[in-house]
Amino acid sequence: MTAFNPTIQQQEAIDYESSCVITACPGSGKTTVMKEKIRRITADLPSHKGVIAITFTKKASEELKKRCKEHAHDTKLSFFGTIDSFCLKELILPFLGRIWGGRPSDCQIIKRLDSLQKQYLSKEYNSPTQDELVFDDGFKALYDNGILWMSSFAALSLLILSSSGSARRYVKARYSHVFIDEYQDSSESQHELFIKLRELGLVATAVGDVDQSIYRFRGSQPEFLIGLGEDPDNFKHFELDFNHRCHPSIVNYASRLLDPECKLLPHEGDIRVYRRLLTGNLRNAAGEVTTWISDWLKNGKVGHACEIAVLAKKEVSLKEFSLGFGLEYRLYKDTPLNDIGTECADIYSDFLSYKYEAIPTSQDVIEKYSMQLRSENIAELRRLLKAIRSEQNLEAFIEKCNYLLEKMGCDELEAENDAVRTIWNDNSLVKLFKPVAENEVQIMTLHKSKGLEFKIVFHLDMEEWSFPHRIPGANWDDINYPSLAEDTNLHYVGITRSELGCILIRTSLRRNAQGNYSDSRPSYFLRLPQLEGLYQ
Predict the structure, then answer these.
(1) Of 166, 161, 158, 165, which Cα lies nearest the Cα of 139?
(2) What is the spatial order of strands in the sheet that 273-278 belongs to?
(3) Distance (Å, whole) CA 431 – CA 222
(4) Which pTM does this prediction carry?
(5) CA angle, corner 80, sides to 78 and 81, nearest 5?
(6) What is the per-residue DSSP string for 286-330?
(7) How many CA atoms are closer than 13 Å to the CA of 462, on its beta-carbon side?
(8) 454-459 and 308-312 beta bridge pairing
(9) Would you say 20 and 236 are in contact if contact means Cβ atoms under 8 Å apart?
(10) How are beta strands 509-511 and 517-519 bridged, if at all?
(11) Could you read off the pLDDT of 313-353 as tens digits, one per residue?
């Protein structure tokens, strides 16, 4: 492992001991900075305390936890996970019953409300605030009917901290610091929870990048990150603005996409951003891309196929591309368990990941679900999990999983069991629960690529009407890009996933919403004058 030699910017952020905001461009080492800060803090904490380390995805959380624990470092009683997981495990399950009565542990946890559940609420919400939670009786009615909705978790946690002295005492006694990564994707209630934790005495660190804000449609508000950076009385602002990952020519292209006047980095050698117009549709283009990648692998330009990604705005584009692709690949998509959207479905997904070794050890599963399993015998849990891993019969596997899920408070698992049957018999879905193989090209949406990095990136959908999103005006050729700012950020995210080269692919034929093909025109992004001279 290469020794970490921090830059002056990074070292200043690591050394600062009070509340701060770290704005960090792609490839700036922000995860390493968070890791170094957490390791330094936890080294001096007593055994009964820890830090709260919140990340946007489970995968990012597992990576941060792994890096913080390197060389057997003791992170004490720290929490690593998503904000929903923190709210549920540390506040809602232990304390909501004291405010609303009942038993939160008996509730079904869901990601999406169905049409009947929505009728409890007075209006539609993306991410409700605490005030909306209090004034709309439908949230309490959902709870009384055994439903906990994930999108309300931050607001519920704020309600708990506002109403329960024991919850406030618990948080202050258990945790000394709170870190939230990808802060630009925080909703109003999540931002208010972060502020509340700081007001309770926790040292608070927000890390993010407004230019990578791509989830406004879910209720995210990047303005909150900007506001923290403009609050010198409570937060010191650090900026990590040097991209250590991407070739300078990629940085130049991506930076000019956002700011036509930005200063370009000097560099020697070739420009590593390429634009290619390929004949036919995406299925035809996949054949040509197959040839390119095969040649690169043969001549050693790229060591492994898994270091190459194919990204697109639309999942339908990736599916069409994959039909013509001639190499092994992994197409990242939501599974039937994701579609169910319950906590039990998420646990079932982890059982599958353990069976197929994406989660390497039984101890990883036990630690992740320590709250639900703390009354169980650890040796017996290991035996049950190993039986799950070794089971080759589908129905026997389901039976073993159901036995353990019921111990964890899950029941009525018919939908989850049917989803597992579908996954078990679909190799493309089973792949998603296995460790990434070296010979698999990674194919995913731009949204799913957030936080990842690759040697080479192919960026599809570079046709007008495909990306950015466009809707017809009064006349067919009227320009109307309703989400241009967010789509620009999404394009920026895609470009900056690449370390050595980014190939922007436009096909001569574009498939419309009706499934018909017509001649394409260059995307709005390919017509920006400030990008001239920055690509091959």
Answers:
(1) 158
(2) 273-278, 498-507, 454-459, 308-312, 441-445, 329-331
(3) 34
(4) 0.92
(5) 150
(6) HHHHHHHHHHHHHHTSSS-GGGEEEEES-HHHHHHHHHT--S-EE
(7) 25
(8) parallel
(9) yes
(10) antiparallel
(11) 999 999 999 999 999 999 999 999 988 878 889 899 999 99
